[in-house]
Specification:
Blueprint (H helix, E strand, L loop, with lengths): L6 E5 L4 H10 L4 E5 L4 H6 L5 E3 L6 H8 L4 E4 L11 H21 L3 E7 L22 H20 L2 E7 L1 E3 L7 H11 L3 E4 L6 E2 L1 E3 H14 L4 E6 L5 E2 H11 L5 E4 L13 E2 L4 H5 L8 H15 L1
Parallel strand pairs: 1-2, 1-4, 2-3, 4-5, 5-6, 6-11, 7-10, 8-13, 9-14
Antiparallel strand pairs: 9-12
Length: 307
């Protein structure tokens, strides 16, 4: 699907990944952003985009937003559906179901969805898209997997086409969650000591946000199955301990690292290694430019100025 002269609805389009994607697409497309517009997001909303105030949990307002759209890019989600927040987990599923119903009612045939490699749980890494059975170990991961299943079923039943992206950790300007962000906040509160959950040996794959949005566009334009499931990530990993060290280095502090456990698992729902295999994405003509460590450093450079 060529992303030129298209009418595109981006849910979460003023958020971290969404705002960068809108910035990339808006030159050649008509973009409508659906977002809750928290104070931070009012600053990142692209002023050239159309904005609609839509409650994605409300079927009627979703149906109105989807009318006359060529492609829905569904990035909105509640990340609080992590460990025990079952209502937020169900909210993620309900939002996706409402969008799919609205697409069916309005004869909109194309959807791209932001899933996560977290659905693989503690699978052998790097993990291919074909790995299974999938055993997510957090409610957030379960909600993403449930949404994937809904999208697949609507594609096969009602003639939709989809692109499902299983992202690694994404870093870069405008990031407002995750270890890199949280470490900066903690060090601002206590420059002498940095608490690290677990023993710091957990391994993470970090994808720079511009690599991420370019990957989204490349896959949508080249993958042409009914349901296209594609991992996006870097080609390497970085430990949580190393991320903490980089944050301390870049903030020019002499903080001591304090680990909360003698094992890698830092919290319920944590995984030992988080690394999607990106062989398929590379075969479609996409490749990340930055390594995980380069992404983390660039993220720190940006966030120390932003937060």
């Amino acid at each position: 699907m060529r992303l030129e002269n298209k009418r595109i609805l981006v849910t979460g389009g003023a958020g971290f990944i969404g705002s960068h994607l809108v910035d990339l697409l808006i030159a050649k497309n008509s973009i409508t952003v659906a977002d809750n517009l928290s104070p931070d997001r009012q600053k990142t909303l692209n002023k050239k985009a159309n904005y609609v105030n839509v409650d994605l949990l409300d079927k009627n307002s979703v149906s109105a937003a989807v009318k006359n759209i060529d492609l829905v890019i569904h990035l909105a989600a509640n990340p609080l559906a992590s460990v025990t927040a079952s209502s937020e987990m169900m909210g993620n599923i309900t939002m996706t179901h409402n969008i799919l119903e609205a697409m069916k009612e309005n004869n909109v045939k194309n959807i791209a969805f932001a899933s996560s490699a977290i659905i693989y749980g503690n699978a052998p890494a790097p993990t291919k898209e074909t790995y299974g059975p999938l055993k997510p170990n957090s409610l957030y991961a379960a909600s993403k997997l449930a949404c994937e299943a809904l999208i697949s079923s609507y594609c096969h039943t009602f003639g939709l086409q989809s692109w499902i992206f299983r992202f690694a950790n994404v870093g870069g300007p405008r990031l407002r969650h995750g270890p890199t962000h949280d470490f900066i906040v903690k060090l601002r509160a206590n420059p002498a000591e940095l608490e690290v959950l677990g023993d710091g040996t957990q391994l993470r794959c970090y994808l720079e946000v511009n690599d991420c949005v370019n990957g989204i566009v490349k896959v949508i334009e080249t993958a042409d199955d009914v349901v296209n499931v594609v991992n996006l990530g870097a080609e390497d990993v970085i430990s949580i301990k190393r991320i903490a060290e980089i944050v301390v280095e870049e903030m020019r502090l002499d903080a001591k690292l304090k680990f909360t456990a003698k094992e890698a698992k830092g919290w319920k729902g944590d995984v030992r290694i988080f690394q999607p295999d990106i062989t398929l994405a590379k075969s479609l003509g996409w490749k990340p430019k930055l390594t995980s460590e380069q992404t983390v450093r660039e993220t720190v450079h940006s966030l120390v100025k932003e937060i």
